[in-house]
Prior knowledge:
Elements: H1 10-20, E1 31-33, H2 34-41, H3 45-58, E2 61-65, E3 68-71
Antiparallel strand pairs: 1-3, 2-3
Amino acid sequence: MVNENYSPTEDEEEILSVLKAGKDDGKPWGRANRVWISEQTGLDKGTAEYSIRNLLHAGWLRRPARGLYEFVEDPRE
């Protein structure tokens, strides 16, 4: 269940942005591992993991497989 009252931090917004990239262009989007997310956002490993964990707990991301994260929903859209 997505927490509609959650307010993402600036780092979490960066992660959401890279996961949503390609959505409107018909390109693959919405799934990534932590290393790719770190590379795309410039966030260090610890910050990326912390931000991903927060988004998981808020229900905005899910983990369909070990090490893989998937965008679920941004209730602001």
